[in-house]
């Protein structure tokens, strides 16, 4: 999903090891732009392993990683806490410049907390993804981690009176919402950017996601959708004739495909490139989740519509994602993309295992493509298929409906102090809350925004709509902080 820290993490780790953390890049002429790197300190917190069972692991603990900076903190200032999602926490910290910009304005302490089972926060080290060790990977445990971490750090820093605002993007945004629902005693308000809280709780249309991916390309040029669809149809025709040698040469595959399963894998990999370009359709060059040129959807369509050979065009278009370095000798379909319980992709490495497990348990993503409402080959993913896959892979049976029951489903209107921001370019947007539900449950829609663009730092290429969205978010958050101060003063007097 969403998520999703795909092969990007590998790149990030590489950068970290090779040259220290990526430096601020502000080369305005070619629009290469990384959010400025605040001076985070990396720390570890001794966290309870199992918050909900006092017997099985007793008071056992693991080390949870978090990043913290007090460079903007003024005495009594608020705490801005990022509820980490499915990946290495540095990736989120380095791509959420809005939070530190706002911290500077509000005199806030900033904390980015890593989600258990991701990055370096592995409760059982390299055994974390064994059965039954993986069993402590749940949304509820992750939320309890955040609540305990906030409470303990406030004590340690003598910051008991400081209002806490949570921030998150994508699944991290879902966690921010849930923090406000579950721990309103700890959290005064939440900015949930691009949080698909409805679609991932099984509410919505299974065809929505890939329909909206398609719409991004179609809205740029209707011919683009037609070209992609036709290229996939040509591939399907070759597959039907079992002309595997031709498929290998058309797509520069490392190995000759030899079965319907291989073609399914190839189709998944091709579809995933379009998913990423739609999600990450930012107006400047980025390297979050994947290395992307400015306006990747436009670049993709221009590539798709160049020349007459549609399959060559399709290969070159997915190359924008998989071959961004221009050095990939051939497409290794099983290494560049891993099929999992999330049809929008799970990424690679340990993080992909963790996300796959979550998609097999609480997070529901039975999204399909069908070649009618979208431009992709028909690739159904039903609850039944999910069940079979998850039983085999993790020995678990998913529980459809649980997330909806646990986190209020579409009956959120009695909650308070949550901003639901979404970008119209983001295929996740219509799986989230698009209309305000009350005067303190505020939807902000960003017409030219991709996946949580508003969380990123200011950039000269930002469209006006995201500048306005950040301004509104900043005003609302500032009000929450003031309100919380008044309330707590009222109580202590
Ligand atoms: C767990 O609690 C027991 C009993 O109080 C104590 O002896 C032990 O040191 C604790 N272990 C840890 C890891 O804190
Ligand atoms: C754990 O796995 C990682 C990645 O596969 C590897 O680099 C590391 O050496 C392993 N650590 C241990 C203690 O085996
Ligand atoms: C990757 O890009 C380079 C440079 O454009 C090209 O020569 C190579 O064929 C591409 N690899 C694949 C698998 O398409």
From TrEMBL:
Which region is the signal sequence?
A: 1-20
Q: What is its EC number?
A: 3.4.14.2
Q: Which GO terms describe its cellular component?
A: cytoplasmic vesicle; extracellular region; lysosome
Chief location: cytoplasm
Specify whether Glycoprotein is a keyword of the entry.
yes
Which is an annotated GO molecular function term of this record?
A: dipeptidyl-peptidase activity
Group of enzyme by EC: hydrolase
UniProt keyword annotations, A-Z: Cytoplasmic vesicle, Glycoprotein, Hydrolase, Lysosome, Protease, Secreted, Serine protease, Signal, Zymogen
SUPFAM superfamilies this protein is in? alpha/beta-Hydrolases
Q: InterPro entries of this UniProt entry? A: AB_hydrolase_fold, Peptidase_S28, Ser_carbopepase_S28_SKS
Record-linked Gene3D superfamilies: alpha/beta hydrolase, Serine carboxypeptidase S28, SKS domain
Record localization: Cytoplasmic vesicle; Lysosome; Secreted
Please cite one Gene Ontology biological process associated with this protein.
proteolysis
Q: Which reaction does it catalyse?
A: Release of an N-terminal dipeptide, Xaa-Yaa-|-, preferentially when Yaa is Ala or Pro. Substrates are oligopeptides, preferentially tripeptides
**Can you state the subunit structure given in the record?**
Homodimer.
Please explain the role this protein plays, according to its UniProt record.
Plays an important role in the degradation of some oligopeptides.
**What family does the database annotate?**
Belongs to the peptidase S28 family.
Name under which the protein is recorded: Dipeptidyl peptidase 2
Which species does this protein come from?
Alosa alosa (allis shad)
């Amino acid at each position: 999903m969403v998520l999703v820290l795909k092969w990007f993490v590998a790149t990030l780790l590489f950068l970290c090891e090779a040259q220290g953390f990526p430096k601020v890049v502000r080369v305005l002429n070619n629009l290469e732009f990384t959010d400025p790197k605040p001076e985070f300190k990396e720390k570890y917190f001794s966290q309870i392993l199992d918050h909900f069972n006092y017997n099985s692991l007793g008071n056992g603990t693991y080390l949870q990683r978090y990043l913290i900076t007090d460079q903007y903190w003024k005495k009594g200032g608020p705490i801005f806490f990022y509820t980490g999602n499915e990946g290495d926490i540095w990736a989120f910290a380095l791509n959420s410049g809005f939070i530190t910009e706002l911290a500077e304005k509000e005199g806030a302490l900033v904390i980015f907390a890593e989600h258990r089972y991701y990055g370096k926060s592995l409760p059982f080290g390299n055994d974390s993804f064994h059965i039954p060790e993986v069993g402590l990977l749940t949304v509820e445990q992750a939320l309890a981690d955040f609540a305990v971490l906030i409470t303990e750090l406030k004590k340690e820093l003598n910051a008991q009176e400081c209002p806490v605002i949570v921030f998150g993007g994508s699944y991290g945004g879902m966690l921010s919402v849930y923090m406000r629902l579950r721990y309103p005693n700890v959290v005064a308000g939440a900015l949930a950017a691009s949080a698909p809280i409805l679609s991932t709780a099984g509410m919505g249309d299974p065809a929505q996601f890939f329909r909206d991916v398609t719409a991004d390309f179609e809205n740029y040029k209707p011919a683009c959708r037609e070209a992609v669809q036709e290229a996939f149809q040509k591939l399907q025709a070759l597959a039907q004739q079992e002309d595997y040698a031709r498929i290998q040469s058309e797509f520069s595959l490392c190995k000759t495909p030899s079965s319907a399963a291989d073609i399914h894998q190839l189709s998944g990999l091709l579809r995933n490139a379009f998913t990423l370009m739609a999600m990450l359709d930012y107006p400047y060059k980025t390297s979050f989740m994947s290395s992307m040129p400015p306006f990747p959807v436009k670049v993709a369509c221009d590539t798709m519509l160049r020349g007459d050979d549609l399959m060559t065009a399709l290969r070159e278009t997915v190359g924008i994602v998989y071959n961004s370095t221009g050095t990939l000798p051939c497409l290794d379909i099983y290494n560049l993309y891993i099929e999992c319980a999330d049809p929008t992709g799970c990424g690679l490495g340990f993080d992909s295992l963790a996300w796959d497990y979550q998609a097999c348990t609480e997070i529901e993503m039975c999204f399909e493509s069908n070649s009618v409402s979208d431009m992709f080959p028909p690739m159904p993913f039903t609850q039944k298929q999910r069940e079979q896959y998850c039983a085999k892979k993790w020995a678990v049976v998913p529980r459809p409906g649980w997330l909806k029951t646990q986190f209020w489903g579409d009956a959120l209107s009695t909650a308070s102090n949550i901003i639901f921001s979404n970008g119209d370019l983001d295929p996740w947007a219509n799986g989230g809350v698009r209309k305000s539900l009350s005067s303190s449950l505020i939807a902000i829609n960003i017409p030219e925004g991709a996946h949580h663009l508003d969380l990123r730092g200011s950039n000269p290429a930002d469209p006006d709509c995201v500048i306005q969205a950040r301004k509104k978010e900043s005003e609302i958050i500032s009000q929450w902080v003031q309100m919380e101060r008044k309330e707590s003063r009222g109580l202590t007097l």
